[in-house]
Amino acid sequence: MDTYILGIESSCDDTSAAIIKGTTLCSNIIAGQKVHEQYGGVVPELASRSHLQNIIPVIDTAIKNANIQKSNIHAIAFTRGPGLLGSLLVGTSFAKGLSMSLNIPLIEVDHLQAHVLSHFIKLPDIQNETPSFPFLCLTVSGGHTQILKINDYFDFEIIGQTIDDAAGEAFDKVAKIMGLPYPGGPNIDKLAKEGNPHAFKFSEANMPHFNFSFSGLKTSFLYFLRDQLKTDDSFIEKNRADLAASIQYAIIHSLTKKLILAARHHKISQIAIAGGVSANSELRNTLTKIAKQEKWELFLPPFQFTTDNAAMIAIAGYFKYQKRDFCKLDATPYTRYDQK
Q1: How do 135-140 and 145-152 pair as beta strands?
Q2: What is the topology classification, in CATH, of domain 4-127+305-339?
Q3: I want to staple 192 with a disulfide (CB 3.0 to 4.6 A). Which of 96, 244, 293, 322 is the partner?
Q4: 28 phi, psi to nearest 5 deg
Q5: Residues with Cβ < 8 Å from 323, sequence gap 6 or more?
Q6: Each residue of 58-116: pLDDT tens digit?
Q7: Which homologous superfamily does the CATH classification assign to the domain defined by 135-301?
Q8: Global pTM?
């Protein structure tokens, strides 16, 4: 019998619902929030209010687009964390209520694990390859940067991570310094295509083992601009594309350098990337070139699964459903791992 899982994602500013039939995606609906653009970042209180407005129509549309009834759903998977508390509470509370009303199991999902497991989503009429265990996954987003060794669907080993800021946060911060609109990462990516990645050199942290640090890189960028603006107040405007290309090169070089070391050390040639920054075109191009040199089998997620989405929550829920790994109604959201 076919297993249908409803996934609900509300960890930040996107309200999303998806239906998975087995491992095949039936629908994936995302409602974004434009309100944050004027503030240059996500405002938690506004995000949670928007989730309250969006969650019912988003879930209703996901079910209709999947051509099923609520009675066909076998379980509800929801993002328990990490994320913004108010946003998580909306999704968690709705998932609990719907689970009770339909008398079906509730499944908690870790947001970051779900990003990795998005590689196992099957798309209708598309023969997409999936990684085999063990594989390495570079998970890069606005809140996290990690190299994970994936031994099984829920056996993740952190072998490297940032000690301070995430790579996605670095992209957004330098974009803000340059006066680019939010979200900064995609704007840096677009602008960098017109610039010279070697026009300016910014210091990269020399971290031990497979760890990262991006705080010093942001500071280096800020101080460089400060010094240049003392003699030319239009320096940023004149060099915007080169600045974007150069800082992007520094961030991507930091990421790929450690990923190569980790892959060689662990003797693993199955390599994947996940998270919002995995949509960056230069990161994808660079990894594709490295994969040929290192003889990797590289797995790049479809763009629709790079940002926050409920399809990845649903696929994680499906694998947990197979194990009958359900949660109780008293499950509470966690914003960070030390609160889990």
Answers
A1: antiparallel
A2: Nucleotidyltransferase; domain 5 (3.30.420)
A3: 244
A4: -155, 105
A5: none
A6: 999 999 999 999 999 999 999 999 999 999 999 999 999 999 999 999 999 999 999 99
A7: ATPase, nucleotide binding domain (3.30.420.40)
A8: 0.93
